[in-house]
């Protein structure tokens, strides 16, 4: 009887620990699976499973192991603020199709076959390569499609206070261009911004780390954003 109680207790503690881990590390990983998230899933499964079926391990061992892994996971995410480490850990999106032309080298580098690609396109409701303008292969294995005749995509220029070099390279721009537009919009350095997005023919959308928003010529202070938006 005691063994069944121990198993039930471990399951409950494991569930609570995993939910706490997801709350601490962020909800975004539930929607987008990155290599780091995949490793986390394997490690957490091994931790809970190993303790569950080992009678010598107690429920407290689950909590301790999850606490250590959570701290290490958060440290790794902190290190990912470095653009180089972020690319090494998370990877970066690449163009599979650019300007209607298929990037064969990207297909080979990511071991992506054409039939796999066509399945992804059909899931987007697209059935011919003639209809494609740009296609990006995202870090979570999905694709983002820009069709001929539709609006152009937007570009993330600043992410969490750092200029995204890969975006500038894809646009054929340099850091001076990014800094010039940051200053034109009333900020001195990228570190003041949570993000800055550029959409051709529409302009810049900026969010400061203070919570203030600037979209085009419109400026909205953080305290003026309605509560229903913040909640």
Short description:
The protein contains ten helices and ten strands. With 231 residues, it is of the alpha+beta class.
Strand content: 15-25%
What is the rounded Rg? 22 Å
Instruction: List the secondary-structure elements in sequence, H or E.
Output: HHHHHEEHHEEEEHHEEEEH
Mean pLDDT: 78
Structurally, how many domains make up the residues?
Answer: 3
**Class by alpha and beta content:** alpha+beta
Amount of helix: 40-55%
How many extended strands? 10
Largest sheet geometry:
6 strands, antiparallel
Tell me, briefly, the overall form.
globular
Strand order of the largest sheet: 6-5-7-8-9-10
> What is the rounded distance between the termini?
46 Å
The residue ranges in which pLDDT falls below 50 over 5 or more consecutive positions are 27-31
Task: Give the count of helical stretches.
Answer: 10
Give an account of the 3D structure.
The chain has 231 residues and is α+β, with helices and mostly antiparallel strands. The chain has three domains: 2-88; 92-147, bsu07140 like domains (CRO Repressor); 155-230, bsu07140 like domains (CRO Repressor), CATH 3.30.240. It has ten helices and ten strands. The chain has helices at 2-25, 28-31, 35-52, 59-79, 83-90, 104-109, 114-123, 165-171, 175-184, 227-230; strands at residues 94-98, 101-102, 132-137, 143-147, 155-159, 162-163, 193-199, 203-208, 213-215, 218-220. It has a six-stranded antiparallel sheet. Strands 2-1-3-4 form a four-stranded antiparallel sheet.
